[in-house]
Amino acid sequence: FVFGKKKAIEVAHKVWEHVVRKGDLVIDATCGNGYDTFTLLKMVADESQQGRVYGFDVQKAALESTSSLLEQSICSNEKDLVKLFQKCHSKMADVLPEDTLVRLVAFNLGYLPGGDKTIITEPRTTVEALKVSKDILMPGGLISLVVYVGHPGGGQELKTVEEFSSELPVENWIGCKFQMLNRPLSPVLIFLFKKC
Ligand code: SAM
Hints:
Helices cover 31% and strands 23% of the residues.
């Protein structure tokens, strides 16, 4: 695929496809309108009904929007594979089954498109959530972030995510960033692969 012709989120989905397997447990840390939750569900769902997507958002409106998208787009036997929580993503470990490791944690930061633009992801809780993600991720797993820089606070959030990512030990992690150099306000993609 050609990076320049795709939206950042589509590029992220392509990367997820190379990591996520049928039957996996994955996390959508920012459900929003549910497009990523739906995409992840399609990646993990199989006949064995083992795959699971745990989705988080702090806003009731976002979870309603996600539920409504799923309601329209998935078969009834897939409904039980998605678990949605109105909770800050920094608390994601509290609701996971004990001793469970996940294949992917996906963050799509910023505000709810079409919603309240004052409710945004914040650097402090984003970093808390990244610390938790690091611990619950299985070897071979991925933390994926789409970071928007066009809204107030977006640049600071990117800086915070970059600082966290740069400090990950090189023996265990591959951290990389994709950024459009000639479109400074386009979203930045950060992928953190856990080696072991
Ligand atoms: N993934 C979404 C989709 O496919 O439509 C888009 C996500 S949207 C850019 C960001 C979402 O993060 C918003 O819905 C917002 O409510 C949510 N959010 C903000 N702070 C959060 C937090 N601390 N924990 C979880 N979600 C949060």
